[in-house]
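Workshop exercise sheet. Pairs work together: one partner reads the sequence aloud, the other fills in the structure field after running the prediction. Swap roles for the next sheet.
Pair: D.N. / O.F.
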Amino acid sequence: MSRIKDFQLPDLGEGLTEGEILKWLVQVGDTVTLNQPIVEVETAKAAVEIPAKWAGKVVAIHHPEGTTVAVGTTIISIDTDPSAGDAPAPDGRPADATPEPGDGPSEPGIIGGPAPGGRTAVLVGYGPRAGATRRRPRKPGATAPAGPTAPARPTAPASAAQAPVTVTAPVSTPAQPVATARPAAVPAQPLATESAARAAGSARVLAKPPVRKLARDLGVDLAGLVGSGPQGSITREDVQAAAARTAGAVAPAAAPVFGPEREQRIPIKGVQKVMAENMVASAFTAPHVTMFVSVDMTRAMQALDRLRQVPEWRELRLSPLLLIAKACLLAIKRHPLINSTWSAETNEIVVKEYVNLGIAAATERGLVVPNIKDAGRLSLRELAEALSALVTTARAGRTAPADMTGGTFTITNVGVFGVDGGTPILPPGEAAILAVGAVREMPWVHEGELAVRQVATLSLSFDHRIVDGELGGKFLRDVAAFLADPEVTLLAWT
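Structure field:
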Protein backbone atom coordinates (compact mmCIF):
# COMPACT_ATOMS: atom_id res chain seq x y z
CA MET A 1 0.00 0.00 0.00
CA SER A 2 1.43 3.33 -1.08
CA ARG A 3 2.71 5.75 1.54
CA ILE A 4 1.49 8.70 -0.55
CA LYS A 5 -2.23 9.23 -0.11
CA ASP A 6 -4.10 11.43 -2.56
CA PHE A 7 -6.95 13.28 -0.87
CA GLN A 8 -9.90 14.04 -3.15
CA LEU A 9 -12.40 16.85 -2.63
CA PRO A 10 -15.32 15.04 -0.95
CA ASP A 11 -18.99 15.38 -1.74
CA LEU A 12 -20.08 17.81 0.96
CA GLY A 13 -23.73 16.87 0.64
CA GLU A 14 -26.92 17.75 -1.23
CA GLY A 15 -25.51 16.65 -4.59
CA LEU A 16 -22.89 19.40 -4.81
CA THR A 17 -20.48 18.89 -7.70
CA GLU A 18 -17.73 21.44 -7.04
CA GLY A 19 -16.20 23.77 -4.48
CA GLU A 20 -13.84 26.74 -4.35
CA ILE A 21 -10.66 26.49 -2.29
CA LEU A 22 -10.85 29.53 -0.02
CA LYS A 23 -7.89 28.93 2.27
CA TRP A 24 -5.19 26.32 2.71
CA LEU A 25 -4.65 25.74 6.42
CA VAL A 26 -1.46 23.73 5.81
CA GLN A 27 1.52 23.99 3.48
CA VAL A 28 3.87 21.62 1.70
CA GLY A 29 6.23 20.19 4.30
CA ASP A 30 3.80 20.52 7.21
CA THR A 31 3.06 17.58 9.48
CA VAL A 32 -0.68 17.02 9.96
CA THR A 33 -2.63 14.90 12.42
CA LEU A 34 -5.69 12.77 11.85
CA ASN A 35 -8.82 14.93 11.41
CA GLN A 36 -6.84 18.18 11.55
CA PRO A 37 -8.55 20.84 9.37
CA ILE A 38 -6.42 21.24 6.27
CA VAL A 39 -8.45 23.37 3.86
CA GLU A 40 -11.47 25.68 3.85
CA VAL A 41 -13.76 25.14 0.88
CA GLU A 42 -16.79 27.14 -0.22
CA THR A 43 -19.59 25.27 -1.94
CA ALA A 44 -22.78 26.65 -3.41
CA LYS A 45 -24.31 26.47 0.09
CA ALA A 46 -21.66 27.21 2.72
CA ALA A 47 -18.00 27.41 3.65
CA VAL A 48 -16.68 24.36 5.50
CA GLU A 49 -13.36 23.19 6.86
CA ILE A 50 -12.31 19.74 5.66
CA PRO A 51 -10.19 17.56 7.97
CA ALA A 52 -7.32 15.27 7.02
CA LYS A 53 -8.15 11.59 6.51
CA TRP A 54 -4.61 10.56 7.42
CA ALA A 55 -1.79 11.73 9.65
CA GLY A 56 1.51 12.44 7.96
CA LYS A 57 3.47 15.01 5.99
CA VAL A 58 2.08 17.18 3.20
CA VAL A 59 4.07 16.47 0.03
CA ALA A 60 1.96 18.28 -2.58
CA ILE A 61 -0.86 20.82 -2.83
CA HIS A 62 -2.38 20.51 -6.27
CA HIS A 63 -4.64 23.57 -6.50
CA PRO A 64 -4.00 27.10 -5.17
CA GLU A 65 -6.47 29.22 -3.25
CA GLY A 66 -9.24 30.65 -5.40
CA THR A 67 -9.43 27.57 -7.64
CA THR A 68 -12.79 25.87 -8.23
CA VAL A 69 -12.38 22.09 -8.39
CA ALA A 70 -14.81 19.26 -9.04
CA VAL A 71 -15.81 16.74 -6.40
CA GLY A 72 -13.44 13.76 -6.60
CA THR A 73 -10.45 15.84 -7.76
CA THR A 74 -7.19 15.33 -5.88
CA ILE A 75 -6.37 18.48 -3.95
CA ILE A 76 -3.54 17.40 -1.63
CA SER A 77 -1.13 14.47 -1.18
CA ILE A 78 0.06 13.24 2.21
CA ASP A 79 2.99 10.95 3.07
CA THR A 80 1.57 8.71 5.79
CA ASP A 81 4.98 7.38 6.89
CA PRO A 82 7.45 10.28 6.74
CA SER A 83 9.72 8.67 9.34
CA ALA A 84 10.64 5.91 6.88
CA GLY A 85 12.93 8.22 4.92
CA ASP A 86 12.51 9.95 1.59
CA ALA A 87 9.08 9.26 0.21
CA PRO A 88 8.62 7.98 -3.32
CA ALA A 89 7.24 10.49 -5.76
CA PRO A 90 3.52 10.30 -6.48
CA ASP A 91 2.95 7.41 -8.84
CA GLY A 92 1.64 9.41 -11.75
CA ARG A 93 -2.05 8.87 -11.16
CA PRO A 94 -4.04 11.77 -12.62
CA ALA A 95 -5.40 14.48 -10.35
CA ASP A 96 -8.96 13.34 -10.89
CA ALA A 97 -8.35 9.65 -10.23
CA THR A 98 -9.55 7.92 -7.11
CA PRO A 99 -7.13 5.83 -5.06
CA GLU A 100 -6.98 2.10 -5.24
CA PRO A 101 -9.56 0.25 -3.16
CA GLY A 102 -6.82 -0.83 -0.76
CA ASP A 103 -5.68 2.70 -0.06
CA GLY A 104 -7.40 2.78 3.23
CA PRO A 105 -11.01 3.84 3.82
CA SER A 106 -10.96 1.17 6.52
CA GLU A 107 -8.14 2.81 8.49
CA PRO A 108 -9.23 3.77 12.03
CA GLY A 109 -10.27 7.37 12.51
CA ILE A 110 -10.99 8.12 8.87
CA ILE A 111 -14.11 10.21 8.32
CA GLY A 112 -17.08 7.89 8.18
CA GLY A 113 -15.07 5.04 9.70
CA PRO A 114 -14.23 3.93 13.23
CA ALA A 115 -12.47 6.41 15.48
CA PRO A 116 -10.58 5.85 18.73
CA GLY A 117 -12.84 4.91 21.63
CA GLY A 118 -15.35 3.10 19.43
CA ARG A 119 -16.84 6.31 18.01
CA THR A 120 -17.39 7.26 14.40
CA ALA A 121 -15.55 10.17 12.81
CA VAL A 122 -18.18 12.42 11.23
CA LEU A 123 -18.28 15.47 8.96
CA VAL A 124 -21.71 16.76 7.96
CA GLY A 125 -22.56 15.70 4.42
CA TYR A 126 -19.29 13.82 3.93
CA GLY A 127 -18.99 10.18 3.08
CA PRO A 128 -17.48 7.73 0.60
CA ARG A 129 -18.42 8.13 -3.02
CA ALA A 130 -20.94 5.65 -4.36
CA GLY A 131 -19.17 2.85 -6.15
CA ALA A 132 -15.46 2.41 -6.70
CA THR A 133 -13.50 3.75 -9.65
CA ARG A 134 -10.26 2.15 -10.71
CA ARG A 135 -7.29 4.39 -11.25
CA ARG A 136 -5.75 4.61 -14.68
CA PRO A 137 -3.05 2.00 -15.27
CA ARG A 138 0.56 3.09 -15.34
CA LYS A 139 2.30 3.29 -18.64
CA PRO A 140 4.43 0.24 -19.36
CA GLY A 141 7.87 0.54 -17.82
CA ALA A 142 6.98 3.53 -15.71
CA THR A 143 8.78 3.56 -12.36
CA ALA A 144 8.93 6.03 -9.53
CA PRO A 145 12.01 8.26 -9.77
CA ALA A 146 14.61 7.86 -7.06
CA GLY A 147 16.03 10.61 -4.91
CA PRO A 148 14.43 13.24 -2.71
CA THR A 149 10.73 13.92 -2.67
CA ALA A 150 9.69 15.37 -6.01
CA PRO A 151 5.92 15.67 -6.47
CA ALA A 152 4.96 14.88 -10.03
CA ARG A 153 2.15 17.41 -10.01
CA PRO A 154 2.56 21.15 -9.44
CA THR A 155 2.55 22.35 -5.88
CA ALA A 156 0.91 25.50 -4.62
CA PRO A 157 2.43 28.77 -5.89
CA ALA A 158 4.86 30.69 -3.77
CA SER A 159 2.11 33.06 -2.64
CA ALA A 160 0.45 30.17 -0.83
CA ALA A 161 3.66 29.23 0.97
CA GLN A 162 4.01 31.92 3.54
CA ALA A 163 4.22 31.90 7.30
CA PRO A 164 2.87 28.90 9.21
CA VAL A 165 -0.66 28.80 10.61
CA THR A 166 -1.58 27.47 14.04
CA VAL A 167 -4.73 25.33 14.09
CA THR A 168 -6.38 22.97 16.53
CA ALA A 169 -7.93 19.57 15.99
CA PRO A 170 -11.74 19.25 15.93
CA VAL A 171 -13.59 17.26 18.55
CA SER A 172 -14.28 14.22 16.37
CA THR A 173 -11.22 12.66 18.03
CA PRO A 174 -9.68 13.51 21.42
CA ALA A 175 -8.76 17.18 21.04
CA GLN A 176 -5.07 17.95 21.15
CA PRO A 177 -3.14 21.08 20.18
CA VAL A 178 -1.40 20.92 16.84
CA ALA A 179 2.11 22.26 16.73
CA THR A 180 2.86 25.32 14.68
CA ALA A 181 3.36 24.22 11.10
CA ARG A 182 6.86 24.18 9.60
CA PRO A 183 7.75 26.48 6.71
CA ALA A 184 6.77 25.18 3.30
CA ALA A 185 9.20 23.05 1.34
CA VAL A 186 8.50 24.93 -1.88
CA PRO A 187 10.63 28.00 -2.47
CA ALA A 188 8.88 31.18 -1.39
CA GLN A 189 9.52 34.70 -2.58
CA PRO A 190 11.30 36.93 -0.04
CA LEU A 191 9.05 39.22 1.94
CA ALA A 192 10.29 42.42 0.46
CA THR A 193 7.76 44.88 1.81
CA GLU A 194 6.74 45.98 5.26
CA SER A 195 3.11 44.96 4.59
CA ALA A 196 4.22 41.45 3.63
CA ALA A 197 6.21 41.20 6.85
CA ARG A 198 3.14 42.19 8.84
CA ALA A 199 1.11 39.54 6.99
CA ALA A 200 3.67 36.91 7.93
CA GLY A 201 3.45 37.90 11.57
CA SER A 202 -0.34 37.89 11.46
CA ALA A 203 -0.40 34.34 10.10
CA ARG A 204 1.19 33.05 13.33
CA VAL A 205 -1.70 34.13 15.55
CA LEU A 206 -4.81 32.06 16.15
CA ALA A 207 -7.63 33.36 13.95
CA LYS A 208 -10.16 31.79 11.63
CA PRO A 209 -9.98 32.57 7.89
CA PRO A 210 -13.06 34.87 7.90
CA VAL A 211 -11.49 36.86 10.75
CA ARG A 212 -8.22 37.15 8.80
CA LYS A 213 -10.12 38.40 5.77
CA LEU A 214 -11.94 40.99 7.89
CA ALA A 215 -8.59 42.13 9.30
CA ARG A 216 -7.20 42.54 5.78
CA ASP A 217 -10.27 44.49 4.68
CA LEU A 218 -10.05 46.82 7.70
CA GLY A 219 -6.27 47.16 7.61
CA VAL A 220 -5.79 45.63 11.06
CA ASP A 221 -2.50 43.89 11.96
CA LEU A 222 -3.44 40.67 13.76
CA ALA A 223 0.03 40.33 15.26
CA GLY A 224 -0.62 43.36 17.45
CA LEU A 225 -3.89 42.10 18.94
CA VAL A 226 -4.62 40.13 22.10
CA GLY A 227 -7.33 37.57 21.36
CA SER A 228 -10.41 37.20 23.54
CA GLY A 229 -11.55 33.90 22.00
CA PRO A 230 -10.82 30.30 22.98
CA GLN A 231 -7.10 29.63 23.55
CA GLY A 232 -6.39 33.31 22.90
CA SER A 233 -7.74 33.28 19.33
CA ILE A 234 -8.62 36.55 17.60
CA THR A 235 -12.37 37.12 17.11
CA ARG A 236 -14.30 39.42 14.77
CA GLU A 237 -15.08 41.66 17.73
CA ASP A 238 -11.34 41.99 18.49
CA VAL A 239 -10.67 43.09 14.91
CA GLN A 240 -13.57 45.54 14.79
CA ALA A 241 -12.57 47.05 18.13
CA ALA A 242 -9.01 47.54 16.88
CA ALA A 243 -10.29 49.21 13.72
CA ALA A 244 -12.53 51.48 15.81
CA ARG A 245 -9.59 52.51 18.02
CA THR A 246 -7.58 53.41 14.95
CA ALA A 247 -10.19 55.32 12.96
CA GLY A 248 -12.65 56.37 15.66
CA ALA A 249 -15.28 54.03 14.20
CA VAL A 250 -15.45 50.64 12.57
CA ALA A 251 -13.76 51.02 9.21
CA PRO A 252 -15.78 50.20 6.08
CA ALA A 253 -14.92 47.28 3.86
CA ALA A 254 -12.04 47.72 1.44
CA ALA A 255 -12.78 50.01 -1.48
CA PRO A 256 -13.30 48.32 -4.86
CA VAL A 257 -10.31 48.13 -7.19
CA PHE A 258 -11.07 49.45 -10.67
CA GLY A 259 -9.16 48.60 -13.84
CA PRO A 260 -8.16 50.86 -16.74
CA GLU A 261 -11.78 50.85 -17.96
CA ARG A 262 -12.83 52.17 -14.52
CA GLU A 263 -14.88 49.02 -13.97
CA GLN A 264 -14.68 46.21 -11.46
CA ARG A 265 -15.73 42.68 -12.43
CA ILE A 266 -16.85 40.39 -9.61
CA PRO A 267 -17.24 36.69 -10.46
CA ILE A 268 -20.68 35.32 -9.59
CA LYS A 269 -20.12 32.03 -7.80
CA GLY A 270 -20.76 30.07 -4.64
CA VAL A 271 -23.56 31.23 -2.37
CA GLN A 272 -24.24 34.36 -4.42
CA LYS A 273 -24.69 32.36 -7.63
CA VAL A 274 -27.15 29.93 -6.07
CA MET A 275 -29.07 32.76 -4.38
CA ALA A 276 -29.45 34.59 -7.71
CA GLU A 277 -30.63 31.47 -9.53
CA ASN A 278 -33.16 30.67 -6.79
CA MET A 279 -34.54 34.20 -6.68
CA VAL A 280 -35.01 34.34 -10.46
CA ALA A 281 -36.70 30.93 -10.45
CA SER A 282 -39.00 31.94 -7.61
CA ALA A 283 -39.89 35.36 -9.01
CA PHE A 284 -40.94 33.93 -12.38
CA THR A 285 -42.64 30.78 -11.05
CA ALA A 286 -44.76 31.82 -8.06
CA PRO A 287 -47.15 34.78 -8.47
CA HIS A 288 -46.20 37.07 -5.61
CA VAL A 289 -48.55 39.23 -3.56
CA THR A 290 -47.37 41.41 -0.64
CA MET A 291 -49.43 42.82 2.24
CA PHE A 292 -48.32 45.33 4.88
CA VAL A 293 -49.37 46.14 8.42
CA SER A 294 -47.96 48.53 11.02
CA VAL A 295 -48.01 47.25 14.58
CA ASP A 296 -47.51 48.88 17.97
CA MET A 297 -44.75 46.74 19.49
CA THR A 298 -44.39 48.71 22.72
CA ARG A 299 -45.74 45.89 24.89
CA ALA A 300 -43.62 43.34 23.06
CA MET A 301 -40.47 45.37 23.73
CA GLN A 302 -41.48 45.76 27.39
CA ALA A 303 -42.04 41.99 27.63
CA LEU A 304 -38.51 41.42 26.31
CA ASP A 305 -37.11 43.82 28.92
CA ARG A 306 -38.88 41.91 31.69
CA LEU A 307 -37.68 38.60 30.29
CA ARG A 308 -34.08 39.82 30.37
CA GLN A 309 -34.42 40.35 34.13
CA VAL A 310 -35.31 36.70 34.76
CA PRO A 311 -32.15 35.04 36.15
CA GLU A 312 -32.46 31.97 33.93
CA TRP A 313 -32.61 34.15 30.79
CA ARG A 314 -29.88 36.69 31.52
CA GLU A 315 -27.17 34.80 29.63
CA LEU A 316 -29.25 34.68 26.43
CA ARG A 317 -29.16 37.39 23.79
CA LEU A 318 -32.79 38.40 23.31
CA SER A 319 -34.15 40.47 20.43
CA PRO A 320 -37.55 41.24 18.91
CA LEU A 321 -36.85 38.44 16.42
CA LEU A 322 -37.61 35.91 19.17
CA LEU A 323 -41.17 37.18 19.68
CA ILE A 324 -41.68 37.63 15.94
CA ALA A 325 -40.65 34.01 15.35
CA LYS A 326 -42.99 32.83 18.12
CA ALA A 327 -45.83 34.90 16.65
CA CYS A 328 -45.32 33.29 13.23
CA LEU A 329 -45.21 29.77 14.68
CA LEU A 330 -48.47 30.31 16.58
CA ALA A 331 -50.14 31.92 13.56
CA ILE A 332 -49.08 28.97 11.37
CA LYS A 333 -50.89 26.63 13.76
CA ARG A 334 -54.03 28.71 13.23
CA HIS A 335 -53.53 28.88 9.44
CA PRO A 336 -51.64 25.71 8.35
CA LEU A 337 -51.93 26.45 4.61
CA ILE A 338 -49.31 29.21 5.04
CA ASN A 339 -46.80 26.43 5.74
CA SER A 340 -47.08 24.53 2.46
CA THR A 341 -45.59 24.12 -0.99
CA TRP A 342 -46.89 23.87 -4.55
CA SER A 343 -46.00 20.59 -6.26
CA ALA A 344 -46.14 20.95 -10.04
CA GLU A 345 -44.96 17.34 -10.44
CA THR A 346 -47.95 15.83 -8.62
CA ASN A 347 -50.37 18.75 -9.11
CA GLU A 348 -50.88 19.03 -5.35
CA ILE A 349 -50.53 21.52 -2.52
CA VAL A 350 -48.42 19.83 0.17
CA VAL A 351 -49.21 21.15 3.66
CA LYS A 352 -46.43 20.58 6.23
CA GLU A 353 -47.21 19.64 9.83
CA TYR A 354 -43.66 20.56 10.83
CA VAL A 355 -42.20 24.08 10.56
CA ASN A 356 -38.58 24.45 9.48
CA LEU A 357 -38.26 28.14 10.29
CA GLY A 358 -35.83 29.94 7.97
CA ILE A 359 -34.00 33.09 9.09
CA ALA A 360 -32.43 35.14 6.29
CA ALA A 361 -28.90 36.21 7.26
CA ALA A 362 -26.48 38.53 5.48
CA THR A 363 -22.92 37.16 5.55
CA GLU A 364 -19.61 38.06 3.96
CA ARG A 365 -20.33 35.54 1.20
CA GLY A 366 -23.88 36.68 0.48
CA LEU A 367 -27.39 35.99 1.70
CA VAL A 368 -28.00 32.60 3.30
CA VAL A 369 -31.23 31.24 4.79
CA PRO A 370 -30.49 28.55 7.40
CA ASN A 371 -33.51 27.10 9.13
CA ILE A 372 -34.42 25.75 12.56
CA LYS A 373 -35.76 22.23 12.15
CA ASP A 374 -39.20 21.53 13.61
CA ALA A 375 -39.26 24.94 15.30
CA GLY A 376 -42.95 24.66 16.11
CA ARG A 377 -42.22 22.07 18.80
CA LEU A 378 -39.66 24.17 20.65
CA SER A 379 -40.33 26.01 23.89
CA LEU A 380 -39.70 29.75 23.95
CA ARG A 381 -36.32 29.24 25.61
CA GLU A 382 -35.33 26.49 23.16
CA LEU A 383 -36.35 28.78 20.31
CA ALA A 384 -34.19 31.59 21.76
CA GLU A 385 -31.18 29.28 22.02
CA ALA A 386 -31.71 27.97 18.48
CA LEU A 387 -31.98 31.49 17.02
CA SER A 388 -28.81 32.61 18.80
CA ALA A 389 -26.86 29.58 17.57
CA LEU A 390 -28.19 29.97 14.02
CA VAL A 391 -27.23 33.64 13.73
CA THR A 392 -23.78 33.12 15.29
CA THR A 393 -22.99 30.19 13.01
CA ALA A 394 -24.22 32.01 9.90
CA ARG A 395 -22.18 35.14 10.60
CA ALA A 396 -19.08 32.99 11.09
CA GLY A 397 -19.70 31.36 7.70
CA ARG A 398 -19.98 27.91 9.25
CA THR A 399 -23.60 26.97 8.43
CA ALA A 400 -23.78 23.34 7.37
CA PRO A 401 -25.37 22.64 3.95
CA ALA A 402 -28.07 20.50 5.58
CA ASP A 403 -29.19 23.49 7.68
CA MET A 404 -29.96 25.50 4.53
CA THR A 405 -32.33 23.02 2.94
CA GLY A 406 -35.88 21.98 3.73
CA GLY A 407 -37.17 25.36 4.92
CA THR A 408 -40.97 25.78 5.04
CA PHE A 409 -41.46 29.41 6.19
CA THR A 410 -38.95 32.27 6.32
CA ILE A 411 -38.47 35.51 8.27
CA THR A 412 -36.18 38.25 6.96
CA ASN A 413 -35.31 41.03 9.39
CA VAL A 414 -34.57 44.08 7.22
CA GLY A 415 -35.00 46.29 10.27
CA VAL A 416 -31.41 45.58 11.37
CA PHE A 417 -30.33 47.79 8.44
CA GLY A 418 -32.63 50.63 9.48
CA VAL A 419 -35.14 49.76 6.74
CA ASP A 420 -38.86 50.17 7.41
CA GLY A 421 -40.16 47.46 5.08
CA GLY A 422 -40.03 45.83 1.69
CA THR A 423 -41.49 43.21 -0.64
CA PRO A 424 -39.44 40.03 -0.08
CA ILE A 425 -39.19 37.28 -2.70
CA LEU A 426 -40.23 33.79 -1.67
CA PRO A 427 -37.56 31.16 -1.15
CA PRO A 428 -38.21 28.41 -3.73
CA GLY A 429 -40.79 25.91 -2.54
CA GLU A 430 -42.23 28.07 0.26
CA ALA A 431 -45.68 29.64 0.32
CA ALA A 432 -44.92 32.75 2.39
CA ILE A 433 -42.14 34.94 3.79
CA LEU A 434 -42.37 37.70 6.42
CA ALA A 435 -40.20 40.82 6.32
CA VAL A 436 -39.80 42.79 9.56
CA GLY A 437 -38.93 46.48 9.49
CA ALA A 438 -37.11 48.59 12.05
CA VAL A 439 -38.81 49.25 15.41
CA ARG A 440 -39.07 53.04 15.67
CA GLU A 441 -40.58 55.54 18.11
CA MET A 442 -43.52 57.09 16.26
CA PRO A 443 -46.68 59.06 17.05
CA TRP A 444 -49.52 56.56 17.54
CA VAL A 445 -53.09 56.74 18.77
CA HIS A 446 -53.06 54.71 22.00
CA GLU A 447 -56.18 54.38 24.16
CA GLY A 448 -57.77 57.34 22.39
CA GLU A 449 -54.81 59.67 22.81
CA LEU A 450 -51.79 60.54 20.72
CA ALA A 451 -48.65 59.01 22.22
CA VAL A 452 -45.11 58.06 21.28
CA ARG A 453 -45.03 54.29 20.77
CA GLN A 454 -42.57 51.76 19.34
CA VAL A 455 -43.91 50.83 15.91
CA ALA A 456 -42.73 48.43 13.19
CA THR A 457 -43.99 47.49 9.73
CA LEU A 458 -44.53 43.83 8.77
CA SER A 459 -44.58 42.74 5.12
CA LEU A 460 -45.95 39.34 4.09
CA SER A 461 -45.24 38.05 0.58
CA PHE A 462 -47.06 34.89 -0.44
CA ASP A 463 -47.64 32.54 -3.37
CA HIS A 464 -51.07 33.53 -4.71
CA ARG A 465 -51.57 30.04 -6.15
CA ILE A 466 -51.81 28.74 -2.57
CA VAL A 467 -52.65 31.73 -0.37
CA ASP A 468 -55.44 34.12 -1.29
CA GLY A 469 -55.88 37.61 0.08
CA GLU A 470 -58.19 36.52 2.89
CA LEU A 471 -55.82 33.90 4.27
CA GLY A 472 -52.80 36.18 3.88
CA GLY A 473 -54.62 39.00 5.66
CA LYS A 474 -55.75 36.79 8.56
CA PHE A 475 -52.26 35.38 9.07
CA LEU A 476 -50.67 38.85 9.08
CA ARG A 477 -53.38 40.12 11.42
CA ASP A 478 -52.66 37.32 13.91
CA VAL A 479 -48.90 37.95 13.85
CA ALA A 480 -49.53 41.66 14.49
CA ALA A 481 -52.00 40.86 17.30
CA PHE A 482 -49.43 38.73 19.11
CA LEU A 483 -46.75 41.44 18.85
CA ALA A 484 -49.20 44.10 20.07
CA ASP A 485 -49.97 42.12 23.25
CA PRO A 486 -47.84 38.95 23.54
CA GLU A 487 -48.86 38.00 27.09
CA VAL A 488 -52.61 37.91 26.42
CA THR A 489 -52.43 36.23 23.01
CA LEU A 490 -49.96 33.64 24.32
CA LEU A 491 -52.45 32.68 27.02
CA ALA A 492 -55.40 32.78 24.61
CA TRP A 493 -53.81 30.72 21.79
CA THR A 494 -51.94 28.04 23.74
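Discussion prompt: The first strand starts at residue 4 and ends at 8. What would you look at next?
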